[in-house]
Amino acid sequence: MKNTWNKRLTSFALMFVLLLSIVVPTVAAADEGAINYLALGDSLAAGMTPTKSIDNGYSDFTAAFLDENKQLGSYSKAFAVPGDKTDDVLEDLTTNEQLRVAVKNSNTITISAGANDLLKDSKLDPDKKIIVLDETKVPGTLLQISKNYTLILKTIKELNPNANVFVMGYYFPFPYVADIQKPKLIELTHTLNKAIEVASIANGASYVSVYEKFGDDSKQFLPNPTDIHPNLEGYKLMSEALLASMVKVKPVAKDIPKGFWAEKELNLLLEAGIYKLDEKGNINPSKAITRAEVAEIIYSIIPTTKSVPTNPGFKDLPESHPSYMAIAKLTEAGIFTRNEKFNPDVPITRIQVAKVVALAFQLKGDASVPKYKDINANYWGTPFINAVSTHKIMMGYSNGAFGLQDNTNRAQFAVILYRVQLLTANQ
Hints:
alpha/beta
């Protein structure tokens, strides 16, 4: 494995010609042009091993690589604390003056936090090989993680507007659990990662995915069946993902002109992988978004139970349809309505978007009826329009209408999602 790691480091060295222009901003630093690296977060940032000792973690391997390539000015993981949750990281950034000074003096910051938020009330049943977890608390915990990350990243930006921040995703930590529970825990890990990714990118940080490097069966990197921490080879994989993220070029859509009204929101969704470029490198902002596409996006970013859903019975939605799972789960949750057909490839209208968004993100309006000339108090969609209007997620046109049956395009939906993220993060 050592030779493999050295070969990987060599390949990264070839890319590091680009690193200074990407990673190192203009900040006041001890060594001009150097990377001053600060690692924050939980036991993974600290480098806890499967035997509960502290050793080289992903941040140490990353710092060592930077040092070997004469890029490292300073490095610290002094503020990485095993067991820290996102609210602990936020509190330290707010109250610990030494940490605040360290943030100001760093130009590259990594954070790993969020798993302890979910795991704080869980425990392993070694006899049954299952994780005992209160699933009813998961949606609220995920929402709180998203809120905390927004505040963490805003605080860092206030302290050091030029710092490059990289937020670490998580690997699958339970390869030894019983097979009957494993699919649910795998999906929970993916949902946690997606919550962290969306909150990170929406607030200007880079998300570092590590899940695929460990895979669903991560036993070779997590040798202790009763501990979730990786061995040194696992930490090297995390460092590899981080280094790759540092030199990664963000995708750029050819058809988003500079100054386009939804430029920021479209680019955020593109970077998060929620929107994809077509074969020509376009994101197609003016193209109508379909009902199936909206279902896929909503399903990917909100927590849902991962049990096999009841077939919703839509005549135009066979189980082989690529969006079947998303549509079936959201219909089961009451976000879409059961009907004879779903019309997956039909553009979604504004009233349909208002309903889906209000239900999916549990938005409530005030008691008043929105003053749009194309609705009234008895209209079935008035509560949903009220909800999205109250929170300024969707507003009417200058002619006084909401535009109930108008199609929603990809740029408009990107802005709607971004506004929802800001709302949930600040509630």
